[in-house]
Input
Amino acid sequence: MSYISNITSSQIPQLTTGQIRNLSTDEVGALTTAQIAALTSAQIGALESRDFMQLSSDQIGAFDGSMFSDGLLVYGDKSSLLSPTQVQGLTTTQLSLFTSNHLDFFDTTDIASLSTAQLNSFSTDVIANLSARQIKALTTEQVSALSTEKIVALSSAQVAALSTAQVASLTSDQLNAMASDDVKALTTAQVKAFTSTQLAALTSTQVALMETADIAALATNQINQLTTDAIAALTTGQVKALSSAQLNALTSGQLGAMETADVAALSTRQVSQLNTAQIALLSTAQIEGLGTAQVKSLGTAQIAALTSSQLNAMASDDLQTLRSAQIKALTTAQVSALTTGQIVALSTAQVAALSTAQVASLTSDQLNAMASDDVKALTTAQVKAFTSTQLAALTSTQVALMETADIAALATNQINQLTTDAIAALTTGQVKALSSAQLNALTSAQIQAMGSAQIGVLPY
Output
C-alpha cells in the first residue's frame, strides 16, 4: 500500500512539490477527496499532466476553488489538460473563481459539456472573453440559460458569432437585456432567425438600431410581430427599405403607429402597393403628410377606399394632382363629402372628368363654390345630370357662363327649376338656343324675369 494513503488531509500541505511530482499515476488516482481538498496551489501545479488527467470528476470537484484556480495556471498545455468528464465535475464555486486566463483549458467540446449552472457561474469577465469558436460551441440550451447579466457582457463580435439556432433560442428577457451595439451587430441571417415571440419582445430602441438590410430581410410573418412602439421607432431609412409584401403584412395597428414623417418618406411604389384596407386605416395626419407624387401614385381602388375624413384631410395641391382616372374612381359619397375649398381647388380638367353620377351627387354648397371656369368646363352630359335642387342652387353668374349647347340640352323639367335671377342672367345667345319645348316649360315668373333684350330674341 502506498504511503500516501496513510497521510491525513492536515498533513498533505506539508508535502513538498517534489514529493507531489514524484507520486505515481496510481497514487494520484488513489487520493481521497479530503486529501485533494487540502492540496495547495503549488502542489496542484506540481502534479504531472499525465497524472492530472487520470483524476475522476469527483476528485476534480474536491479541489479548493481558490487553490485550484491558481494551481492550474502553471500548466503549459492547457487545452488538453481537462477532459469533458472532468469539466463536468467542476463545481460552480471553482468556476466562479476562474479568470479569462483559464479559458484556454476549455476546448469547444469542454465548453459544450458544461451544465447551464456551471456556465452561469463564470464571471462576466470570463464570459466576455469567450472566443468565437467557444461561443459557437455553446448549445441552444446553454445559450437560453445565460443570465441577462452574462448576455449584457457579450461583445458585439461574440453576438455576431452566434449561430441562427442559438439566436432563435434567446429568451425575451435576454433580448431585452442585449446592449444596443450588440443588436446593431446582428447579421441579416440572425435577424431572419428571430421567432415571433422574440420580435414582439424587441424594444423600440433596439429596432431603431437595426441595420436597414436586417429590417428589409424580415419575412412577412415576422414584420407583423413587431410592437406598435417598435414600428413607430423605425427610422425613415428603415421604412423606405420595406418591401411591398412587408407593407401589406403590417396590421392596422402597426400602420396607424407609423410616424407621419415615415409615411411621407414612402416611395410612390410603396404607397401604390398598400392594400385598400390599409389605405382606409391611414390617419388623417398621415394622409395630410403625403406628397403630391404619392397621392398621384394611388390606384383607383385605393382612391375609392379613402374615407371622407381622409379626403377632407388631403391638401389642395395634392387634390389637384389627381389624375382623371382617380377622379372618376371617387364614389358619389366621397364627392359629396369634399369641402367647398377642395371643390374650388379642382381644375377644369378634373371637373370635366366627373361622371354624371358624381355631378348629380354635388351639394348645393359645392356647386355654389365651383369656380367660373369649372362651370364653363362642364360637359353637356354633366349639365343634363343636374338635379332640380342643383339647378335651383346655381347662381346667375354660373348660369350665364354655361355653354349655349349646355343650356339647350336642359330637359323641360330642368329649365323650369332655374331661379328667376338665373333666367334674367341668360345671355341672348342662350335664350335664342332655347327650344320651343323649353320655352313652353318656363314658368310665368321666369318669363317675367326676362329683360327686354332677351324678349327681343324670342321666336314669338
